Amino acid sequence: MALYITDECINCDVCEPECPNAAISPGEEIYVIDPERCTECVGHYDTPQCQSVCPVDCIPKDPDRVESHEMLLAKYTRLMAEPQG
């Protein structure tokens, strides 16, 4: 599953720099997570880093985007193959 940020977000800015996939960015009102880039930190860490630093616990799994560990790992592999720059 990709993660998402609920409207309980207080825009504290601690999650964005923690994301190893650059999946988190400022939205119109709150931060947002790009589900095409979110691997729940699979390939980087054992747990989602944004969830571990969020002071208001507003980053749950998205029930509309169910992905297995293997799917998240494949997404990680695809993201790591992108040209850096």
UniProtKB/TrEMBL annotation:
Where in this chain does the record put each 4Fe-4S ferredoxin-type domain?
A: 1-29, 31-64
| Descriptive protein name | Ferredoxin
Q: Which GO terms describe its cellular component?
A: cytoplasm
Question: What are the UniProt keywords, alphabetically?
Answer: 4Fe-4S, Electron transport, Iron, Iron-sulfur, Metal-binding, Repeat, Transport
| Natural source organism | Acidihalobacter aeolianus
Q: Which domain of life is it from?
A: Bacteria
A GO term, aspect molecular function: metal ion binding
Task: Please give the InterPro entries that the UniProt record associates with this protein.
Answer: 4Fe4S_Fe-S-bd (IPR017896), 4Fe4S_Fe_S_CS (IPR017900), PSI_iron-sulfur_center (IPR050157), YfhL-like (IPR047927)
Query: What is any Pfam family matched here?
Result: Fer4_7
